[in-house]
Each structure stands twice: as C-alpha cells, then as structure tokens.
Design goal:
This protein is an alpha/beta fold. Helices cover about 30% and strands about 25% of the residues. Strands 12, 13, 14, 15, 16, 17 and 28 form a seven-stranded mixed β-sheet that branches. The radius of gyration is 25 Å and the shape is globular. The structure holds flavin-adenine dinucleotide (FAD). Flavin-adenine dinucleotide binds near residues 344 and 389.
C-alpha cells in the first residue's frame, strides 16, 4: 500500500528528490553512529543481496553505495547513496525481502545498523525518525510507480483472479509489473518460457524464479516472504485479529506503548476502509484520503513501533478454555496471547442471486477504488445499496463512468447517509437514483454482460447491457469463527462492557469480581473493537477510537 507522494512530502523541506534521498548532517550521522557500528567496505562488496530478509541499513560516511536491480543479463542502477545518505526502504521495517542489491561502488566507511537498531532509532529520535520514515515511504511509492519489483503478474482485466491478485499486491503495498494478456503482444513467448498456458492465468512470476498459477493470497504472501521472521511460538502481550482501521489503531497504540503485538489479517491490511475511494469525514484530512492511503500510513506506523503483522492468515478459532488464550489460524498453526483484541469488522451482505459469485471480480465488485474505476471508465455501471458506502461509490464512479444507476431496495437513501453525499447524489446528472428497485438477474459468459432489475413499485422489469455492478448493501459481522466462545447479540455482533447482561456473564461463567471493562467481551482480557462490536458506530473514526481505547484496558488486564 502506498499513498500519493504529495501527501507525505513536507512542504517546508527540500525538493521531493532530496526528501527521498536526504543527506544527513554530520551531527545526525554522529547520532546514528551511536546506534550502529562503523566499518570499512571494499569496492564491489555486496552489502545486501536482492531477496535477503531482515537486512541491515547502511549510512555512507565516505565512498558510495549503489543500489542495483539485476535485469536480464545485466543490471540497472536504481540509486546511488553518497556520504550522509542511507540505504533501505519500507521493507526494512517489516524485515521482508529486499527488492535490490546494495553494493559498495568504491572503498569507504559506512555505519551498519541492524534492523532492530534502526527501529529503536526511529522510535526514539523524532527528527531522524521523520527523515528516515519519509524517505522510506517516498522510495516505496517510487518503486511502485516505476514497477521496480520482484513480481511480474500476467493476467487479464476480464479475469476475477487477476483483479484479486492485483488488489492483494496493491493493498500490501508491494510493487509489481503487470502484463495484460489482452493488450500486450509477445506475452505468449513469456508464458511459453515458463511453460504455462493461457488457462493458468493469472500467473505470478515471483522473484524471477517461482511461477505461481492462479495463486491464492497465502501462496503469494509465502513466496514474497510477507510473514518471514515472525516468531509464532512467542507468547504475546496482545494478539489483534484483523487489520482494518480498528486493528491497526490498536496495533499502533499497543506497540508504541511497549507491548509485544502480533496482528493477524486474513487478507490484506485496510479492511472495509481499504475499499473506499475517498474518506472525506475523517478528522485531519480536509481534502479526503483514500482508504488504501490511510491504511498504508497506519500499517507503516504500526511497523515503525515494532508491531508484527501476519498477512493472508486468518483466525479460525479462539481456544478460550484456558489461559493464556490461543488463536488458531486457518493453516492450523496457533499463537498464544495474554490478551486478545478482536477487530474482524464486517463483510458485505451478498444479494441472493444464484450466480453472483461467478461474476465476482468479473463485473461484480464489493469495493469501489481507483482500480475498479479504471475497469469501467466510460461505461454504464450499477451501484446497489442506499447507505454511506453506496453513496460514496456512486459519487466516485460518476467521475469516470458514463452513467451510474443507483438501485435502492427501500423507498429512499438511508437516513444514516451523510448530508453531503445525499446532496451530491441528487445534484449529479450522471447518477440515476432508482428506489424500490432491486437486481433480479445477472447474465454473461465469463464476464458480466447484462443486468436485469425490477422496479417493485411500478412492477416493471428492465434489462440493460451493463458490465459492472458494485454491491454495497450493508454488512454482517465477521464472528462466525468464534464458535460459542463469546457472547454475541441477536445479529451476531460481539457484546462488550455494559451491554453484557447478568445472564450473559453467568452463561459465560465470568470468573472475576469486577465487571467487564468497556470494550471487554464476556471473556476476561478479550476485547472487541470497531464494526464487529455490537452498538459500534460504523465509521473509521469510531473504529480507530475504539482500537486505541482498548489498549488502555489491555494494560490494566496485564497488570491484574
Ligand atoms: C466502501 C466503503 C466506504 C466507506 N466510507 C467511509 C467513510 O467515508 N467514512 C467513514 O467514517 N467510514 C466509512 N466506511 C466505514 C468504515 O470503513 C468502517 O467502519 C471501518 O473500516 C471499520 O473498521 P474495522 O477495523 O472495525 O473493520 P474492517 O474495516 O471491516 O476490518 C476488519 C479486518 O479484519 C479482517 N478479518 C476478518 N475476519 C478475520 C479473521 N477471522 N482473521 C483475521 N482477520 C480477519 C478483514 O480482512 C479486515 O481486514 C466505509 C466502508 C466501506 C465499505
């Protein structure tokens, strides 16, 4: 995940290039030297090899370090670091594989900083922390913009699997080169070279070596080493389940307050917010921010404070019969936790159309981001739903689509919809709002081609050649995996704090003299935050607020 470079650049500082490759002052270099070790390097010495994990950072005192990418038989120089400059980019924080080789271009002296030393530095020295974090984020944005990566994706815009893989890589902020089978000549040669047929797409060529045919998100995460170096046997102060806004907020606060934090995310960071094209009502972003950009910032921030994130592995069960608790993941492995924060949010309800799943990602979408908007530019689209997220999607898509048909089953837009969105929908000539109307059929061969809907008030059916439907019809809580461990309300949301009745606590055999804390579930030391919690206000701000509040109670439980 990345954000537009403009939003991270400091307007008061040097040029964008200087912020990406800053030259530290002698005093700043001396402060770094106190954290690392000074060593000599020889011309041609490889300091970091592309694909290495948990690599150190080097600050040049004298000499030069080249950053090179192997390409074909030769190599490309991506950057050159001179005295006062430092190596690395965002991957350093997470310990993931590096995308390039760092090599001394001439004999010189460098300061070598192990990853843990770098983390300690950015957490304790705010001036250097800001310079380094900004440079790393800008470098990552540039890598993505230039497609400098260890991943080549061969796919088709008409293929659901391709969209899924692109979304997964984008949401994880992993740069990739994309080859569109439908547009680019000569792709067949590449496929032949790796002995894959067109029926295998999407094909992901990982680190130029491993060829994955229509890989699962887990296979991609494994191949790219997203979860390497994370010790799953360690007993954690807090395990946070879900990396949407509430889980990421909890991770940032918990890690910054010195707790040992592990986050489990079944898909990619960002949650529902990651599916939002632009969040305009979150405090501090007067011009709005896309959900992916917000999540990218939060993800990097959590890593800066030392939180660890396991990607593409969800929680399958909570072993709640003994303490410490254990969270079982969907690959069967377990992590143990003194406390748990459940931040698994909600998933979109799917309209009861028998072939909906068949068109998912091939004309039916559950999020409206820049990527989906590109797929339907200049075409007519349908947005299903009358709540905030549907309204936001309709307004966003109307900027590029020919026409947006907004189908609402009830008599009007939801009362909960923000006033600004209602006005924009009503005033936008490209949005055709149809109330008391619902989709009755989807048709197509591979990709969605036609949509039939029914105006229930007029009793009229219409069929339209529309190839893109955005489903934004409210959400159900992601609590199916809890299986009786925790008290839920009638709709399946988790009950917490004062919402837990005496009967709930008796049924759960609440063992303590004290009542559950705010946000604490019927299990002591297990908290629920964000959209998964009964009574929560379904907003980014409340999710973030609850995630941070829960950490205060985690401290109390840890001291009990
Ligand atoms: C399209 C759209 C637009 C929106 N726009 C706005 C807006 O403009 N302003 C606003 O304030 N709010 C907006 N919202 C609402 C806001 O995004 C949500 O309230 C917020 O994302 C809730 O955060 P959360 O962390 O509680 O849950 P979620 O965002 O739902 O995140 C939950 C995370 O948990 C993961 N997960 C689920 N189950 C498991 C499991 N078993 N194991 C591991 N991980 C799991 C999911 O993959 C997900 O990443 C919008 C929502 C949508 C869908």
């Amino acid at each position: 995940m990345t954000e537009p470079a403009s939003s991270i650049l400091s307007p008061t500082l040097a040029t964008p290039a200087e912020q990406m490759f800053p030259t530290l002052t002698p005093a700043q270099v001396a402060r770094i030297a106190a954290h690392g070790r000074v060593r000599q390097v020889q011309r041609g010495e490889v300091l970091v090899e592309a694909g290495d994990q948990a690599v150190p950072v080097f600050v040049v005192k004298t000499g030069r370090i080249e950053i090179v990418r192997p390409s074909g038989a030769g190599e490309t120089i991506v950057a050159v670091h001179r005295p006062g400059q430092f190596t690395g980019e965002v991957n350093i924080l997470s310990g993931r594989r590096t995308l390039a080789r760092a090599r001394a271009a001439e004999p010189g002296e460098v300061i070598e900083l192990a990853r843990e030393q770098l983390l300690a530095l950015v957490q304790t020295d705010s001036e250097l922390g800001e310079i380094i974090m900004r440079a790393y984020i800008l470098r990552r944005v540039e890598l993505i913009a230039q497609g400098i990566s260890d991943v080549v994706l061969v796919g088709s815009n008409h293929c659901a699997g391709t969209l899924r893989v692109r979304e997964f890589l984008t949401r994880n902020g992993h740069p990739y080169s994309y080859i569109d089978l439908d547009r680019e000549a000569g792709v067949q040669d590449l496929l032949d070279h790796f002995e894959v047929g067109a029926e295998d797409i999407p094909v992901l060529i990982c680190r130029g070596e491993v060829v994955l045919r229509n890989p699962t998100n887990r296979q991609i995460a494994d191949c790219l080493g997203f979860n390497v170096g994370i010790d799953q046997s360690q007993l954690r102060d807090v395990v946070i389940i879900g990396a949407g806004p509430s889980g990421l907020a909890a991770a940032v606060y918990a890690a910054s307050e010195g707790l040992d934090v592990l986050v489990l995310e079944s898909s990619a960071p960002g949650g529902q917010a990651g599916a939002s094209s632009k969040i305009e009502n979150y405090l501090g972003f007067p011009t709005g921010i896309s959900g992916q950009d917000l999540a990218a910032r939060a993800y990097t921030q959590a890593q800066k404070f030392g939180a660890q994130l396991i990607i593409a592995k969800g929680a399958k069960a909570l072993a709640c019969d003994r303490k410490p608790y254990a969270v079982e993941m969907d690959d069967g492995s377990r992590v143990r936790a003194r406390t748990v924060i459940i931040a698994t949010g909600a998933e979109y309800r799917r309209p009861a159309l028998h072939n909906l799943a068949q068109f998912q990602g091939a004309g039916v979408y559950f999020g409206a981001t820049f990527m989906e908007a590109q797929l339907c530019a200049g075409e007519e689209v349908v947005v299903v739903g009358g709540g905030n997220s549907a309204g936001q999607a309709a307004v966003f898509l109307a900027q590029t689509a020919k026409r947006v048909h907004m189908l609402v089953r009830s008599g009007g837009l939801a009362e909960s919809m923000s006033r600004y969105l209602i006005r924009r929908i009503e005033d936008n000539p490209a949005i055709d709002l149809r109330t008391k109307t619902e989709i009755t059929a989807l048709e197509g061969n591979g990709h969605l081609e036609r949509v039939r809907w029914r105006d229930n008030q007029a009793g009229v059916d219409e069929t339209h050649d529309i190839r893109h439907v955005f489903v934004m019809t409210g959400a159900s809580p992601s609590t199916h995996w809890l299986d009786g461990c925790i008290a839920l309300d009638a709709k399946g949301f988790i009950k917490t704090g004062p919402d837990l009745s005496r009967e709930d606590l008796e049924a759960a055999q609440w063992p303590l003299a004290r009542a559950p804390y705010l946000l604490e579930t019927s299990l002591p030391g297990v908290f629920a935050v964000g959209d998964v919690r009964g009574g929560n206000i379904k907003r980014v701000a409340s999710a973030v607020g609850e995630g941070s509040i829960a950490v205060a109670f985690v401290h109390q439980v840890l001291h009990e």
